[in-house]
Design goal:
Elements lengths: L1 H17 L2 E4 L2 E4 L5 E5 L3 H12 L4 H15 L19 E7 L5 E7 L5 H11 L4 E3 H10 L11 H12 L10 E3 L6 E3 L8 H4 L21 E6 L5 E7 L20 E4 L3 E7 L1 H4 L4 H10 L4 H15 L5 E7 L4 E6 L3 E6 L7 E5 L2
Parallel strand pairs: 5-6
Antiparallel strand pairs: 1-2, 3-9, 3-15, 4-5, 4-10, 7-8, 9-10, 11-12, 12-13, 13-14, 15-16
Length: 358
């Protein structure tokens, strides 16, 4: 009997230690407890969908797909999935990525037309090809051939209304610089070559770099980037977005670029990013975050370091990252806006939203 009591006390002590959970500021120290779901922004239903999947025993990759798919279906903030962010032609296209932190495999699609299921298409690229990234209409052909629904018009009445008002405002603001338009909305020609064109072109007013940080914001340039640690401790990330509003057709941002919008390594942890992808993708901030954590940096410092590297070169940029290490410690950093990210783990009754200020 005494032996049984001692064993019971020991087991109770072990259980108590294993359940220790500490929240400090915007960091959470998770003592080996899985699963964990982290996402950019207060996309609560997306995090709940991922949580249900991973809590029921699905893999990190499957949970990421479930979470990002929910956001696509809900058209989170109008910047994920169909029906938002029209390009200069009024068309909505999809960028998405999924990465397996165990195998380091990546599947991605970019500027995909006519298919609304971006994250599912990205997983199909990872599962059924030796490639990493498929783009444009050929990505759509691939996705449809693999069983996804389409072709579908990805525009909505809201996106077309937004586009019409933009046209009425002489297509301002836009992403062109150092060009001369023929008419208020182009086509555009480089100023250096204006003499090659007729008088109509030469009499137009040159357009400088009219792109400004005010054109990049929460409701016109957002992304869901999600990381999941499953019950086995395996890590995956995923990203889905319909890109920058009024982008030049053919533009691909950071969404489908591994190491930029998201990155995962089972041995270290994961990162997700959101913001001005045209600038952020030049720095591969999520790769930087994970490699900094690999070298021993805490997630909070790794996130701040990655953002500061960008801000030193582009002080007017807006963007943010979250970082989570393999033990569940998470943090965020941002520049140019206030950032929020969402977390769910076993010690929470529901999703918790963390706010990070520049």
């Amino acid at each position: 009997m005494p032996t049984r009591t001692t064993l019971s006390s020991t087991c109770f002590l072990t259980l108590t230690v294993s359940l220790l959970f500490l929240v400090t500021g915007h960091q959470a120290l998770n003592s080996g407890q899985y699963p964990v779901v982290v996402s950019t922004w207060p996309f609560l239903e997306a995090v709940r969908a991922a949580w249900r999947a991973v809590d029921n025993g699905l893999s990190a990759v499957d949970a990421v797909v479930e979470g990002c798919s929910a956001c696509e279906e809900l058209r989170c903030d109008g910047t994920v999935g169909p029906g938002g962010s029209p390009d200069e032609n009024g068309e909505t296209t999809i960028d998405a990525l999924v990465m397996d932190g165990v195998t380091m495999e990546v599947g991605a699609v970019a500027a995909m037309r006519y298919v609304k299921d971006g994250i599912k298409a990205a997983r199909l690229v990872m599962q059924h090809t030796e490639h990493t990234l498929l783009v444009g209409e050929q990505a759509s052909v691939f996705a449809i051939s693999m069983g996804l629904s389409g072709p579908t018009n990805l525009s909505s009445s809201e996106s077309m209304e937004k586009w019409t008002k933009w046209k009425e405002n002489h297509c301002q603001p836009n992403f062109w610089k150092d060009v001369v338009p023929v008419g208020g909305c182009g086509p555009y020609h480089a100023k250096d070559f204006v003499g090659l064109y007729d008088e109509t072109c030469s009499n137009t007013t040159p357009v400088g770099n009219i792109r400004s940080s005010s054109h990049i914001g929460l409701h016109n340039h957002d992304t869901i980037s999600m990381a999941v640690i499953d019950k086995m401790g395996h890590i995956a990330v995923g990203t889905s977005t319909n890109g920058a509003t009024f982008k030049i057709p053919g533009r691909v941002g950071d969404g489908p670029i591994a190491g930029s919008s998201s990155y995962a390594d089972d041995e270290v942890g994961a990162c997700g990013a959101t913001g001005d992808g045209d600038i952020m993708m030049r720095f591969l901030p999520c790769y930087q975050v994970v490699e900094s954590m690999r070298l021993g940096m805490e997630p909070k410092l790794a996130a701040k370091d990655a953002i500061s590297r960008i801000a030193r070169k582009f002080p007017d940029f807006v963007g943010a990252v979250f970082a989570i290490n393999k033990n569940g410690v998470h943090a965020g950093a941002c520049h140019g806006w206030t950032f929020q990210y969402s977390v769910r783990n076993p010690d929470m009754d529901d999703v918790k939203v963390y706010t990070v200020v520049p």
